[in-house]
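User: Hello! My lab partner asked me to get a predicted holo structure for this protein. The small molecule is pyridoxal-5'-phosphate, SMILES included with the sequence. Please write out the structure tokens.
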Amino acid sequence: MKNKNLCLDTRVTHSGRAPEQHFGMVNTPVYRASTILFPNLAALEAKEGAKLRYGRRGTPTTHALEDAICALEGAERALVAPSGVSALSTVLMSHAEPGAHFLVTDNAYGPTRKFCEFTLRKFGIETTYYDPAIGTGIEALIRPETRLIWMESPGSQTFEVQDVAAITEVARRHGVTTAIDNTWSGGYFFQPIAHGVDISVQAGTKYISGHSDLMLGTIACSAAIYDRLRETYLRFGVCVGSDDAYLALRGLRTIGVRMRHHHASGLQVANWLLEQPEVLRVMHPALPQDPGHALFRKYFTGASGLFGFVMKSVEHDALARMFDGFSLFGMGSSWGGYESLIVPSNPSVYRSATEWNPGGQTVRIHVGLEDPADLIDELRKGLDRLRA
Ligand SMILES: *Cc1c(COP(=O)(O)O)cnc(C)c1O
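Assistant: Hello! Below are the structure tokens for the protein in complex with pyridoxal-5'-phosphate.
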């Protein structure tokens, strides 16, 4: 990685671009390509070693994005995929072999579990789900055939923080690869590779894009594990178009200012929610009373805008009155854009090793870049409609 000793904001500003190679242009342009021509037979015959040889294998634009992801995650290598699910399934597949065993945190993103249950299981790969709070207790679940430990911290539904270094330390002793879904932090507030994790995956769709108009996945890793990941990646034909890579680079340049704003506004809204009589509990690891707060402080430099809360049991009609009247909060999948979102959620359906039974309706909220005073006002009116 270039600029290794610079601060994160500086690295993210200066990585993945080379104006001197592009007529002085600040941003690496969109190179659309399938065919890439070679000037003579000797060059064609030497293409195995060429960085640019065919569109599926990358363009200057996608390579620039990979360099910028390395700078963001503090990684030696990166790969980009057409969605977060494509990135995570590439990583899972890279460690699949007959009879293999995977350990996956019980708060993992739903489609991660589905890939294990529907795809990997068909090929004889067994997955054990573990309590996200397991820490060094993971050791008791490791078998001779365990190939991968998958983490997600905090989980994007229930927001438990994992003791990442404790798990990676055990994994290393047993020669087991570790991977983490790092989407929540955007790679900005948490650098898993510095804590011993082998592979950090993100839905670049969320904070890297930041504008709710792009599907993207990122895989950041050490040089040691890169070849293995790239082998699977190439065999499946995973690649990203240069227009999308360009959009991702454009979003990434402002990740620092956006994340700091999400952090401050998210906490303001979370603190307001804490005081509402309808709210039983707020799941936000940056709150001192959150059970994950000590681990949060150990690993994270800030919080994103995504968190949850539990409302006292509520009639469905009342919930609809509250939600249907929102105009600033949108209802829809995903998060990480500049705008706020709210959805009711039911995390219990994605669990098997632990129970999620918080005693009321779980809600997930993404606090965007609006003024938090307006968001709080809208939530206040929403609770008024709920009571009406
Ligand atoms: C959205 C999401 C993904 C999947 O990303 P897509 O780009 O939608 O495929 C993976 N992990 C987490 C935690 C997510 O929120």
